[in-house]
Specification:
The protein is built from 6 helices and 17 strands. With 318 residues, the protein is an alpha+beta fold. The protein folds into 3 domains: 64 residues, no CATH class; 88 residues, no CATH class; 125 residues, Glucose Permease (Domain IIA). The radius of gyration is 31 Å and the shape is globular. The relative contact order is 0.13.
Amino acid sequence: MKSTNDMGILTNIKNMFGSRAIRRKNSHSQGNPPAANTRRKQFYKQPRFFRTAFAGIFLVFALLLTIHSGDPYVSHKNLKTIPIDNEFIQTFRGRIGRWVKFQKNKFQPELSALGSSLNEVRELNGFSPSNGNYVFIPMSAEVYNELLEKGLGRRIVEFDKRKMIWPVEIPSYTSRFGHRRKGMHLGLDMGCARGTVVVASSDGVVKVSARMGGMGKAINILHDDGLDTWYGHNNVLLVQEGERVNRGQIIAFSGNTGRSTGPHLHFEIRYMNIHLDPEDFLPFAIRNPDLVARETPGKGFGVISESAFLMDSSRETH
């Protein structure tokens, strides 16, 4: 049984919609069709070309409106600009310099060439260099600017900070993620010459830096968003476990270690140890690095302070 209140509500609804229907009926009976119907008929009387052009203009306008309204998928707020380490200019623990293989009879000339000192090298690396080890030699601002004058500056990229960057400058696929004859390939292989600079794809902490069976000399980085990246078959590992690294920072030199048929980088992305397709997290690759922006003389990247070059005021000259 409906209550008296329910019956009253139903009566009011009927009266409301009924009165609207009566008004519409009276309007038609007086020969005054609704304005919306009139405009619709006039639009469809136009030539087909006009209607198609109008629809195209409307779609373009809607797209532009979406972009300028701050849509999260295209907003400039998600873009970030950084330099990518190359073979001439590299970074380590906030300093600018270069990784060098220590050879006692050649080390002093290399220190002088980069405007550095043995004290700086010891303090930055946390140990005294020994034969065969790679050490990071910080460079002076003068040497840095000279490299820029020669056109050897680092590549500058603008990217969506929710994506990763390519771990090598010119990726050349030799095997993609997915099934192949011998089973599932769990990463992305990029052919590159031995000694190619390998950079971190995103900010994170190094969890593994060691020889890992078939993957050879490998690095695993745990990123701030919970993703893991793996970089396999390297020739030289430059960062240690527990080291904080930044996107675009050199972490290794590529090679052919482990189970490998030729020099290349094996790149994996995992989440909770579930393998994901790396190409889903990477932007379009740069095929011609000569056509991208690089650091320029006198300006550099624009965010490099003196602390990136100078560690202490006293420099050794021997």
